[in-house]
């Protein structure tokens, strides 16, 4: 194939955040913006990681993916990649890309998604690169890419026509080829190996169990029917918003109590379904609901871990180890203590779990941000989490006759609290604040941390320690700093402050609060009521209102 060298100049601001490069679509549409970053990526990888190699390409179906797919394919070909596997219509969820990379032994893959950020001409676009075990590229690579975007001068573009992504099959262009693949089949096969589909089918086919899944017009729309309906016997009407749309139907494809409000309303209505779930733009997040009951993600991962061995064939020998991101509540810690399992606390973002999984010391992990997953792949996995919950419910109810009361989602959660205690948890998000005020607040908090002393009184709480979270990867020894400011009190309560690394405008402040409650008689309290004193303390410690001018958070989870 013929390769043209296209001259270019560095464009500022191409540093990746928590999960890939995310900007407004309009920014990505500037001349060479995407091309520069993709070329910088090839300039950063060792040649043996892509020359004549195999890469995977998928996305969540958002606006600009079609154009972007063609740009990525041409630059990959221009840099000597041998073959690209691309999902039909450019569609493939983040977990499916990870699964395909692993199954087909690819060198890596691209995911065209800004995840839970809204899509459309006025909204966001994004791209992530995953490595050969399916894990998000480590910071050592993303930092190199950023460095290369600052000095880039040429883009290597193959002169090939736009590839037709509609039909399955291989098209060859000299020594380069593109194969359009079904985005679901490899992933479905993996799910069938991880879970007992017969067991789940038994639950979903019951006349006394109602299930609903909201795909939020995002990528899991393409997976819902083949998996839940065709594979597991769910009623076709149980899938809501099941068609992926370029603008997610004007929605914000983030499965939480604010943005998945339609589902929440259905689940909290009188006589609502028994189980409801939703997933985000690129299919790696999940929200789990029972009838009039919300499962906080920090509890969800703990409950999946505690029940995994009994209910999920993949874990029949028990999980190898457990891990959570730092701001995620300590509910999982208690499970690891009881099951006597290795336990890890990592910074926010899935990329920190991969090394532990590759080293064979981690099986199940999660984040408070609706991310749950395991070492079956190297990304969080929304449908996996839903199937894990369905497995637990199916296992608990497998001998129940029609007419007998079923064990519900809330029964399972309350039993868990009774056994392990309840970690009350909430996160307050202040989205798109002025960057200046938000940065000043963080500086102010860092200063406060540096002067803090154990034993100091903060209202009725006594400080155990305060710090800015730092992590040393136990596998490769790499160190990351400034991962979130923590105030940890002697009763185990915690307040954490971070700035989001996934936004595309301004600064999003996140406050995480947690308090442990061993007393069963208090477990039914509303989380917001139970955490009120700690939330008030967080607002006063940080002077948030003063720094950001915000009276109220935009999202509470
Ligand atoms: C957020 C979440 C983090 C998650 C990340 C990517 O990051 O807090 O836990 O890993 O999004 O999720 P931040 O830096 O905005 O807090 V996804 O589904 O958007 O790829
Ligand atoms: Co996502």
Automatic annotation (TrEMBL):
Q: Which reaction does it catalyse?
A: alpha-D-glucose 1,6-bisphosphate + L-seryl-[protein] = O-phospho-L-seryl-[protein] + alpha-D-glucose 6-phosphate; O-phospho-L-seryl-[protein] + alpha-D-glucose 1-phosphate = alpha-D-glucose 1,6-bisphosphate + L-seryl-[protein]; alpha-D-glucose 1-phosphate = alpha-D-glucose 6-phosphate
Where mainly located? plastid
Gene Ontology CC terms, in alphabetical order? chloroplast; cytosol
Q: Which CDD domains match?
A: PGM1
Which UniProt keyword terms apply here? Answer: Carbohydrate metabolism, Chloroplast, Glucose metabolism, Isomerase, Magnesium, Metal-binding, Phosphoprotein, Plastid, Transit peptide
Q: What start and end residues bound the annotated signal peptide? A: none
> Is Magnesium one of the keywords UniProt gives this record?
yes
According to its UniProt record, which cofactors does this protein need?
A: Mg(2+)
Top EC class, one word: isomerase
Protein family (similarity comment):
Belongs to the phosphohexose mutase family.
Subunit text: Monomer.
> What name has this protein been given in UniProt?
phosphoglucomutase (alpha-D-glucose-1,6-bisphosphate-dependent)
């Amino acid at each position: 194939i013929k390769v043209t060298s296209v001259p270019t100049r560095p464009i500022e601001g191409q540093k990746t955040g928590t999960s890939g490069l995310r900007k407004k679509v309009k920014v990505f549409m500037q001349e060479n913006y995407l091309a520069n970053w993709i070329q910088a990526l090839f300039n950063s990888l060792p040649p043996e990681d892509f020359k004549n190699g195999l890469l995977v390409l998928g996305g969540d179906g958002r606006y600009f993916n079609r154009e972007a797919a063609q740009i990525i394919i041409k630059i990959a070909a221009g840099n000597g990649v041998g073959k690209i596997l691309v999902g039909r219509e450019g569609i493939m969820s983040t977990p499916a890309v990870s699964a395909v990379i692993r199954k087909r032994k690819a060198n890596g893959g691209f995911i065209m998604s800004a995840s839970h950020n809204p899509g459309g001409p006025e909204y966001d676009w994004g791209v992530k690169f995953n490595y050969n075990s399916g894990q998000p590229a480590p910071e050592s690579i993303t930092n190199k890419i950023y460095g290369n975007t600052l000095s880039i001068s040429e883009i290597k573009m193959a002169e090939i026509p736009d590839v037709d992504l509609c039909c399955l099959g291989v098209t060859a262009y000299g020594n380069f080829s593109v194969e359009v693949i079904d985005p679901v089949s490899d992933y479905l096969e993996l799910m069938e190996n991880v879970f007992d589909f017969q067991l789940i089918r038994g639950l979903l086919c019951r006349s006394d169990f109602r299930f609903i899944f909201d795909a939020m017009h995002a990528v899991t729309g393409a997976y819902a029917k083949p998996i839940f309906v065709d594979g597991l016997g769910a009623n076709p009407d149980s899938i809501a918003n099941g068609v992926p749309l370029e603008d997610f139907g004007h929605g914000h494809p983030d499965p939480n109590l604010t943005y998945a409000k339609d589902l929440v309303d259905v689940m909290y209505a009188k006589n609502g379904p028994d189980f409801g779930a939703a997933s985000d733009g690129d299919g790696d997040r999940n929200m789990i609901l029972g009838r009039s009951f919300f499962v906080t993600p920090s509890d969800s991962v703990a409950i999946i871990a505690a029940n995994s061995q009994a209910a999920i064939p993949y874990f029949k020998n028990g999980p190898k180890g457990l891990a959570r991101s730092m701001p995620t509540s300590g509910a999982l810690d208690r499970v690891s203590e009881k099951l006597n399992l290795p336990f890890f606390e990592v910074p926010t973002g899935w990329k920190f779990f991969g090394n532990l999984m590759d080293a064979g010391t981690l099986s199940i992990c999660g984040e408070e941000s609706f991310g749950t997953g395991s070492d079956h792949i190297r990304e969080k996995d929304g449908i996996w989490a839903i199937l894990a919950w369905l497995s637990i419910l199916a296992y608990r109810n497998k001998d129940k006759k029609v007419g007998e009361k079923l064990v519900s989602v809330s029964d399972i959660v309350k039993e868990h609290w009774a056994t392990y205690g309840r970690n009350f948890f909430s996160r307050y998000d202040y989205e798109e604040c002025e960057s200046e005020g938000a940065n000043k607040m963080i500086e102010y908090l860092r200063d406060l941390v540096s002067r803090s002393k154990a034993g100091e009184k903060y209202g009725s709480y006594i400080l155990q320690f305060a710090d800015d979270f730092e992590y040393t990867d136990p596998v490769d020894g790499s160190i990351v700093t400034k991962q979130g400011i923590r105030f940890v009190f002697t009763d185990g309560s915690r307040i954490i402050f971070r700035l989001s690394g996934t936004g595309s405008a301004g600064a999003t402040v996140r406050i995480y609060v947690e308090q442990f409650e061993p007393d069963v008689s208090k477990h039914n309290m509303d989380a917001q009521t139970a955490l009120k004193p700690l939330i008030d303390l967080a607002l006063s410690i940080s002077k948030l209102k003063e720094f950001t001018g915000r009276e109220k958070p935009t999202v509470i989870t």
